[in-house]
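During the reporting period, our protein records have gained a structure token line. A sample record is set out beneath this paragraph:
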Amino acid sequence: MSTADYKTMTTAEIREDFLKFFESKGCKLCPSSSLVPDDPSLLLANAGMNQFKEYYQGSKTMKEIGACSCQKCLRTNDIDNIGDARHLSFFEMLGNFSFGGYTKADAIAWAYEFITSPEHLGLPKDRLYMTVFENDEEAIELWHAQGVDYDHISRLGEEDNFWAAGPTGPCGPCSEIYFDQGEEFGCGSPDCAPGCDCDRYLEFWNLVFTQYDRQEDGSMPELPHRNIDTGMGLERIAAIMQHKGTNYDGDLLQSLIGVGEKLSGHEYGTDAAKDRSLRILADHSRAVTFMIGDGILPGNEGRGYILRRLLRRAVYHARLMNIQSPFLSTYVDEVTRLMGDNYPALVEQNALIQDIVRAEEERFGATLDAGESMLEAECAKLAEGAVLPGEVAFKLHDTYGFPIDLTREICEAAGHEVDMEGFDACMTEQKERARAAANRDAWSNFNDVWTGLSDKLAATEFCGYDADAADGCRVVAIVAREAEADEAHAGDEVSVVLDQTPFYAEMGGQCGDTGYLTDGGSLKVRVSDTKGKNGLYAHVATVEEGTLRVGDVVTAAVDHGRRELIRRNHTATHLLDAALKQVLGEHVSQAGSFVGPDRLRFDFTHFEAMTADELARVEGLVNAEIFAAEPIVTRVMGLDEAKASGAVALFGEKYGETVRVVSTGDSDAPFSRELCGGTHARNTADLGLFKIVSESSVGSNARRIEAVTSMGAIEHLDEQLELLAGVAHELKCRPADAAERVASLNHELRDTRKKLEAVTTGAGSDKVAEAFRSAVQLDGYKAVVARLDGLSGKDMRSAWDGIRDAAEGEPVACVIASATPDGKVALLAGATDAAVASGFKAGDIVKNIASLVGGRGGGRPNMAQAGGSDVSGIDAALDAARKELGL
């Protein structure tokens, strides 16, 4: 079968043609949603229909007859298969959708037109095959009406051609479109047909007709309106249109495979194992780039764990290709070049993506080195030919991120197998624990009282931007002990929902307001916190006086003084964000915050500790804005207009079509302009003073600044001055002289320590002198093997210096051990050059005896050290050293 009997199209051409085609049919062109979905039941966007769930459910409507999109998706449920001909972690899904707007007949007719028309894909009709659900006669006739022969239409069962949301609920038949790649891709079976596991018939487009509502008794009445949900993998159709046999042979992934060829020097297509690693590098690098571009940062759980796992798997396969230096930034640049026009976030976040992958690579490189050392130590404990326990392999994998494939490879080289059954059992236990936790979380989402309330109540209206109190607020719900209540009495702890409120609910890092609900009479309800619950504001409260009932009309009054302090600290986070970008660079992005009345906390993306100079510059910029007394200007506008104005959006946050923009000043280029729904100061001068209290790490690629403003800044300065006065009193000097006095005391302390060290570990010390007297003359040098308890690792080096000085220029070597002051073990082997030339190898000796004290280590022939945790093994370790030296 000829591969040249139809035209060729690039991935970009297919993507553009598909979207224009369905837009011409009346579908709304929708941009791809983020990989971080709005749906809390999903970890990552994994299908084109995710962003349209509310339209399918009927909670949203669309004036157009349907929609079309090219959705970026990520799936890792079959990560071990990624790198074969078909599986990808990241992919683009072309889709067209209907929410009762157009019919099944339209969907089939348009699909056939798009794939066969010479103006579009123009695929040869004789190589197209369709599958339908076994009893979907309607679909068969609709395909046949388009000109598809009956012998090109197959019936498949429920497993292949029926979609369902769950045991009950919306469901319907599917129809899949296959392309015949030719006999050379087949299995040779005379029964080979669409649905076969071989690669001859390649499924590339699935049309789902959601038309039934399955009941608990198994019956399936028709839905009020039929829905259409289709998905065509862009990489798969690109491979077909480029006359290639696999997803990885398409133009985009081939460009990324080319990056790996240059970095590794390996030519793709010449070695199956290396080819697989090149495919994994191409796939994972693209996934990593897009995940970070959508606001996902490496972590130990959820999306962050998936990102970290993909990134580390890429680093591991790079090592298999002998790519040692940080390399992912090269892939990031290529992904951005190839796809940045369609996904501008890649361009906007390029610096941040680069810094994150570089930091993660370096960190995991160190992890791999440490893992290899641990594994070698574990192998050293095994008898010849023994099996490494599965629990050990799992610990390396789970705790240290050490890939099981690498564990097996290293063990094989050392003559050991890995207990894979034990490893798999540990993996299964972990998955079951994770699945149970996920089920618990999902159950709580659907059975929470707040879910029921949000279904029947309108969202709470917030009216607190310009006022701290509001009259005429109606009580629409009371929740007590996680159940609805009609009324609450004095002493009851409840959550109160109002139809409108000036109380700000905790969100975006800003803590919830406190205050009182009253009715002008006997009712008094103290609000201790306010939280958001599915669009409702829950006033966490205690009834202090009277009785509160659903339907009551109350006055809601926020604690004014506390609110003012919160406003100031919230505005300070905006100023701080802008200042950090100026000082550190545009890669800085907010990664979390807390805004309270007494302090603020701001987490941001950065990859090293800030210097004192950088902190001073940031603090200076913020205070300059405070002293400039700029008004805080708030405007409500469209999202596109807000972005065009330069407003900063929170990294990874999702916004509606209308947003609130907060700026310092009314100029075209303000110091700070952000999208924000929180409450703010009216003028920067309200903040009074900004003071950074601390800067620290909060995980990989993230830093934290804690700061104070206004009254909090005054209290902080008072505390510091009081502390300085106390230090000065103890030093018996003026506060202004305290630093100089401490420096002088430190100098005296260092001199004293040096003298003490000379006495305890130098050539003239009793311990060293006794050790040297025990030296044994070997062939070409004297050897000292001794236990010198009470010395730290640093002291051991000084002891070796003392032994070498005592030798007065003669060749000498030593193996010394110490039970350290903290209850651990320090080992050291040292030798002069002449002793090394005579055969002494410090690194080999320490490596061989370290395991006897529960440690590991090594070094050069003339100097090696190790630490250990088993003091009881010191004598055995020294005996082993004597035996190795022939003493």
Observations:
- The radius of gyration is 35 Å.
- The chain has 26 helices and 35 strands.
- The chain has a mean pLDDT of 89.
